[in-house]
Amino acid sequence: MPYSPPDRISDVLAKKEYDLVEAIGQSVTESFQRAIQANGRKPDEVRMFSSFFFLGLPVLERRINYILRNDTITTTVCGIFCHQTPVVRYIPSVDKGTCELSDITFIVTYGARLRDGGLGNAVMMQAKLTESEIRKQKVQTGLYQQGLRFHYTAIKTYGTEERLLPPKDSTALCFWDFCANRLSYSPSYRFHNRTRCIHPLDLDKMNRYYESFDKWLFELLAGLKGRGFGKPSPGENAWSQILFDLLKVTCGKAAGQKNIYAQQAGRLRGKVAQDAIAKLLGKDCFLIKNSFDQIFAEFEDHQLQEDALKIEKNPDRYELEELKEIGMKFDGSGEAEPPRVVLEMQDNPDSEGGTFVLIEIRDDNEHETVRHLPGRRRRILG
Predict the structure, then answer these.
(1) Could you report the average pLDDT of every consecutive run of 10 residues in the chain (382 residues)?
(2) Whole-number Å distance between alpha carbons of 262 and 260
(3) Which residues fall within 8 angstroms of residue 324, CB to CB, at 6 or more apart?
(4) Cβ proximity of 112 and 157 under 8 Å
(5) Distance CA 131, CA 203 (A)
């Protein structure tokens, strides 16, 4: 079950539901359209996905904060984007039973501990261009529909301990259908209210109702979808531990290497931007939007906070001119493989990290002293 947000936040979100759902939908539509236009009007899963991350999320944060501007509630959106990891081997399995755990994990917190020590709610999603492509991925759909437990294939990083997936009737796992059929797409196509979230148990039903991604994400913010998590106790191997695995490994990896930051990536436009991002992501580079330190303070995990500070202060990042140069070289110098192939062919069982978006919705009335501390950025980079 998901945790309920603090009462005042819950009341405000309920009153502003229509506007917030619209804001999510507009951000999805704009970022997807940009990716498709930059790709010669051809829908492409990875390009659309990364465009939503480095263009859509900063805009979404600004829109949410504008909607809530008179309610003294602040939303911070941050996250890390990588690709096709972590890979897991699950039981009972379909075929070999090895696939990525999720394409993206949305995690929502509220700036304070919730009842029973809860930190927030989360949902893991597998994303595909169309429903038919979801169905074709038998191993991936099997993980969400049938898998009960799994081991990570990156043993050096995650160890050999088994992890337990949430019950199948929970809303912790779902499929995100972009509804981007290559044959029916046109420049005037509006994704908002069309991209859908499909519960794994509903995928094979004859008569089914799918909620839009916009509504699903809003309900996660409002504590109506997803699954609650807290700080895992020693020896725990269920949902909370899975989320801490994802956060700690991804932040630890990103803290020690050169990355692309959203404020640089967001200033690139067109095919040059897509090619530069795609080429670097194919090398296990991470695309980062950060304000992790203020959020992870609630998690009471020293290593997470330490890595968050390293990421935020890390000077070793790709700058705008470097990204332009990478994109131009990749576009015109006769490189052997297009970026799409580089990304899709990446297959390293010991790869680390996973894509997540961390959203904090904070009641500023409860944090008056925090808002004015030096160096505490209320807005994310981008």
Answers:
(1) 93 96 92 83 83 85 94 90 81 80 93 88 93 90 92 88 93 91 59 80 81 94 95 92 92 75 58 63 59 79 83 67 63 38 32 83 72 35 28
(2) 7
(3) 268, 272, 276
(4) no
(5) 9
Helix pair 17-38, 213-221: axis angle to 10 deg: 130
Contact (Cβ atoms closer than 8 angstroms) between residue 200 and residue 175: yes
The residue type at 87 = V
Question: DSSP 3-state assignment of 191?
Answer: coil
Q: Across the chain, which distance is largest between two alpha carbons, in Å?
A: 58
The amino acid that residue 304 corresponds to is: L
Domain boundaries defined on the chain = 7-371
Question: What does the alpha-carbon distance between residue 44 and residue 85 come to, in Å, rounded to a whole number?
Answer: 19
Q: Report how far residue 239's alpha carbon sits from residue 374's, in angstroms, rounded to the nearest whole number.
A: 35
Residues 354, 82 contacting (CB under 8 angstroms): yes
Q: What is the pTM of this model?
A: 0.84
Token reading at 289? 């939007």
